[in-house]
Prior knowledge:
There is one protein chain. The chain is mainly alpha-helical. 67% of the residues lie in helices and 3% in strands. It has a single domain, classed as ABC transporter involved in vitamin B12 uptake, BtuC (Orthogonal Bundle). 35% of the residues are buried.
Amino acid sequence: xxxxxxxxxxxxxxxxxxxxxxxxxxxxxxxxxxxxxxxxxxxxxxxxxxxxxxxxxxxxxxxxxxxxxxxxxxxxxxxxxxxxxxxxxxxxxxxxxxxxxxxxxxxxxxxxxxxxxxxxxxxxxxxxxxxxxxxxxxxxxxxxxxxxxxxxxxxxxxxxxxxxxxxxxxxxxxxxxxxxxxxxxxxxxxxxxxxxxxxxxxxxxxxxxxxxxxxxxxxxxxxxxxxxxxxxxxxxxxxxxxxxxxxxxxxxxxxxxxxxxxxxxxxxxxxxxxxxxxxxxxxxxxxxxxxxxxxxxxxxxxxxxxxxxxxxxxxxxxxxxxxxxxxxxxxxxxxxxxxxxxxxxxxxxxxxxxxxxxxxxxxxxxxxxxxxxxxxxxxxxxxxxxxxxxxxxxxxxxxxxxxxxxxxxxx
Length: 411
């Protein structure tokens, strides 16, 4: 690049951003910032399949690998109850799918917005109590009770609106405290409104006359459908403008507001969607266990388990939330079924130990940490970021008068 007479042989930042004024004899043009970021400008025309196309190929391969892995997981999930017919393991599978759907719904709001909620059980229990009251009042026969699931989600959405208008006016740390307060309010209401909720006895669900040998299978596929649907919704939201606004709020809410994001509306919308999905999953759980009580429908350990699953797999990541549920729930169920290991008393100890390990050794979660390790192995110590390059003719580069440009602009 031939420097102009006014700069004394050194290109300033503006000229580096705009490109060379004289690319060469008989050639006129400018270089955009994207071209600067892609790499050094060679003396000849850009060759297809060069450095600019390599990241695109890597992205396509990564996307193909993710889609292939997802397809394999879906096939395994679909055939699981057909291959594993033991009632104990299919019960584990039903409960795991319930947790997968719930933690994916939790991540849809808390993971994307950064507002950590410890009141997920408010919507989970509300959905269970709603369909329980309606099923007992309307006396629906057999599988018709599952038609009440959307009504449970609708009631939870109506509950989420006033709760969100109150809780989302504060920032993150205070929001956590408010969600805990809402949780205990709803639990106390379930205990004390005996004429409405049945008090400490709770509500019983209608009896389903399904064969005992395959009783778990329909519930498994219903829970799997809700889990897969929730994951799909979370994925679509993440790739949408709505998801971008949520992540902008998570990164810097004040700056997002300054850029025109209507933070309250965006947060409230995600809060309502998450609550409605959680309530429908809670309704499936109610029909599966045939009863809901205040201490089970509004369980503080349930909230802590959901948060632990999300943090173990990777906070804010769809795959991380699902992975955490697939690890924590089957493991705790298996340990609780082993009397020689202490039965149910081991559950709380395990959750506390896992949470401590995550905080100390894997604070970002399994998937983000694993991705970093894989990147280091693939690059073999080389920097993953495009290093500084020089712009200009080979002669200029050898003489030391070329402009040094990083991947983000001029130095």
